[in-house]
Please model this.
Amino acid sequence: MPSDAGSIAAARRSVLRSVAGSWDFVLLVILAAVLFGAIGWIDNFAETITVTFLLLDVIPIALMATALTLVIVTGEIDLSVASILGLTSAVLGQLWLSGFPLEIAIALCVLLGAVLGAVNGLFVAGLGLPSLAVTIGTLALYRGLAYVVLGDRAVADFPFEWTTRAISTIGDTGIPVAVLPVIGLALLFGVTLHATPIGRALYAIGNNADTARFSGISVSWTKFWTFVASGVMSSLAGIFWTFRYASARADNGLGLELAVVAAVLLGGVSIFGGRGNLIGVLAAVVLLATLQRTLQLASATDEVLNLVIGSLLILSVVVPNVVQMLRQRIRPTVLEGPTP
Amino acid sequence: MTRSKFRRLASGLAAVLALTLTAAACGGGTTRGDDEGPGDTQDSVGEADPNAEIQEGLHISFLPKQINNPYFTVADGGGEQAVGELAGEYEEVGPSEASASSQVSYINTLTQQGVDAIVTSANDPNAICGALDQARSAGAVVVTYDSDTDPACRDLFVNQATAEGIAKIQIELISEQIGGSGQIAILSATPNATNQNAWIDLMKQELEKPEYADIELVEVAYGNDDDEDSFQETQGLLSSYPDLAGIISPTTVGIAAAARYLSGSDSKGKVALTGLGTPNQMREFVKDGTVESFALWDPEALGYLAAYAAAALASGQINGEAGQTFEAGDLGEYTIGDGGVVVLGPPTVFDRDNIDDFDF
Model:
């Protein structure tokens, strides 16, 4: 109870510290710095078309990272996201070639995403196998299936209205229309994660699966559904990708899982589960895309970009640990109150 | 606790939104390309004036399939030389992995930078079309080299060689090397490789000419563009046809594997080998006498020609219509063919005398 002035001040300080010291706050500051730096110093950055290009690049990664956050919060991982994107794209192309109306083809592709995610979920949650091994397997398997479906062909004759729909913007704002459903989905996932019993269950599982089980949470089912969600979001990314580039290919999004996992981890989600939030992840997604555009406009090479992203990732792992270590060293004998 | 979490969530959301809006607001009205509809793109080059001077200071950007790929490094080196001769500004950008859509963000960047010309080799004929359209409506000219896009999305395609040219030179070389008569075999890649099959069909047609009447094609073998398979197929051909006079391998993997087998066998110097190969792969076999000569287009000349074509387009000398001509420095004058295609010319033949002039 805050019965005296001292403890109120202490409480204030700790609130301040938890906001200013939170990783998502740091990320937002970095993002703001990069944005203002780019606007100030990089030629051609301060244009509406930057917003368009940037957000179009962000959409597929945001979709996949949003669902992957849930998976990683439970302490699991899904490395097959980009392969699901590729397989969905290949299947969408093949269905369109075989004469399916696009509406039905898209619905089937979303269903396919759910099934592919369910396969991951079945192995991980049902059989209790390590998700790292399972999804490295399906990373190869799903990509392989994509080549079985479409080979090295490309399907490109999608109707003009669909391909322009994917890249059209809201009036003169430069913001792609496709951002709206992505925001909707992000809100859905954000609310689920941060304001529902399901979300609390996910964190509980990530912190300690046994304790979660004893508190009556169905660990297997919960994990299973996170993989299904990841599959569905990846297939949505695949559908968007196909129309955005007007090209269905088996190698679409090859290697993109690294960017997605990087965004989630940089966003402050602990790879061991139980910690992190969606705001941080989305800030990281936007930050990575902004860095990429900025460096490209500054005519930096891909190698520089990789160096920067790699360093950021290492920092995101190192900094919180160092901070914690320093705190413990400065006040080694602090009496722990009940943790919030 | 939940309330403070919510507050953080909300404040974070607000911050992201604010940043996005700031970026959007700072955009002002300088959208290139957005105000013009896709229908206008064809006019970006305008009428061609054959007497127009090549402008100085043209910003010409090369966007290969992949950077740090030896073939494109050499090709773009040719482009750099040409841009230097034209007193322009040269730049090479590109993805480190040759995937289909990775080139799009580079094209977007070049569009924003307002470059005068984009010279690109497409990883996918369609995936970069939308981005190229935007670049063209922003005023850039687009030249493709090595691999074309959908012809509607570029101004000009600089083709390294025609299928006829490739077939013709290989028959010419083998005929020369076996003295105009004897059995020959072809060592191809896979049975369903489109390019390979087109070349093989044209080689068969070429062989029907009277001057090649004494040459008999006994077999087309497939090494699957795999070093070991090609090696074994070569061995198989030599044992099945003891009188075999020569082998044509129109694939860089096949010819290198066949050369390796021949150089270690009794047939070295007796069975001729030619086809399409790169000088670096074939150098030792040319020097040790296993291979007399082989062919390939010169990527450096390809990049050089592409840069000159880009400069001529950007200066309004040409606009990509068939029949127009332009000067390409050391390479001389070129005429645009049907479909906006410029052909580099017959493939370059590499032999003991000139192979050290090439490094790719």
Summary: Chain B has ten helices and 14 strands. Residues 245 and 271 of chain B are 5 Å apart (CA to CA).
